[in-house]
Amino acid sequence: MLQLFKGSKSTPLVRTALSQQPALEQAVAELAQQLKGLGEMDLALVFASSSYASDLPRLLPLLQKQLRCSHWLGACGGGVIGTNTTGIPQEIESGPAISITLMRLPGVKLSPFQINLNKLPDLDGPREPWMEAVGADPEAGGAMLIWIDPASSGINDLISGLDYGYPSMAKLGGLAGQHSANHGGLFFGDQVCSGAVGCVISGTFSLQPLVAQGCRPIGPIFEVAQAQRNVLLELRQGDALQNPLAALQGLIGELPSSDRDLLRNALFVGLGKESFTMPNPETPQVSPFLVRNLMGMDPRLGAIAVADRLRIGQQLQFQLRDGNSSRQELHELLKIQQQQQPKPLAALLFACLGRGKGLYGEENVDVGLCRELFPDVPVAGLFCNGEIGPVAGSTQMHGYTASWAFLVPNPELEPGK
After folding, report:
1. Which domain, by its residues, includes 236?
2. How wide is the angle at C-alpha 197 spanned by C-alphas 196 and 198, nearest 5°?
3. Is residue 415 in a domain?
4. Where does residue 95 rank: exposed (0-12), middle (13-18), buried (19+ CB within 10 A)?
5. 238 C-beta neighbours (distance < 10 Å), count
6. Could you tell me if 51 and 96 are in contact, meaning their C-beta atoms sit under 8 angstroms apart?
7. 237 and 314 inside one domain
8. What is the pLDDT of residues 53-106, one digit of tens each?
9. Contact 165/134 with Cβ under 8 angstroms?
């Protein structure tokens, strides 16, 4: 069901709650206790760990008996991000956890939507069917939250179609977690569902995106000279041509020993992306390269397989990922975000399951960096099987990435208008 909701004329308010109670009823009671006395709210974002998979159909009805909110949506994930009662954000990477964020946003326009990925509009047709599927006016601006069930087909077509229908709108979210229960992992209204769910937020509030891919470039920028689908056959550097494996071997010889030690498990490929829309100069700028997995090598041909389709003339640069470079990149992007106006009311984080302690060797690094620069901003979110966020003007599905959405007031519109 498509809906349009205009927030109440009151003071903006965002409140979060986090519970790690193993029993669903106890978790809901703890969440309700933390959020009691708020009155009617506009939007509830609910994130639950897969530990509750069999109980997910009961989660939203139980919460809605305790809390009053006009719109409910969210997803189940491999881990949960939330802010505890002392105001400290937490990354709960395993075990039971439920995070809920309630928002009262005066003057906001909310367009929640649910999409069946088996009945997507035609990408070669007009834009209007995509706009009808979402139910929001592209001319109204704003940004989009979206979560997709990982068992769905047509995920790439959905993302391309949303960019087609809403080319200027940032889209942020991720793939929900996998579980063994016989239902989906998405929340919409009072139901658990599959496909995709989301919400366009516009009017007096919107979302500023920040995408930290966690890699640093190594070596020169090449140009794809020859490729077949996702198999890279030849690279160009200036007037020189060579196969990609030879280019990589030459690069390895110039690396310090510390970087050579990372190559076995931390080598990726950065692909230059064409920018179909102009980036917003008021938002943090990310690398123009989309980081993709290196899938394999053929020593006989000197070829490299990449987890994305390649095109002739595309720029390419090898990338390394490690905890230090990921930490540094996110810190720099958060510092840029800190300088933006107006200040955020909340931050949503959709992080890869491969980040967290597995990347950094310690817990709560991503949310800890955010708290250093935004000490009073509540943080909530999900560990995802793929993260959605913009790079170089188009929406991409990422891996090993931290995709952030900062909820900010629109300075051009006063609440209630």
Report:
1. 215-320
2. 130
3. no
4. exposed
5. 8
6. yes
7. yes
8. 999 999 999 999 999 999 999 999 999 999 999 999 999 999 999 999 999 999
9. yes
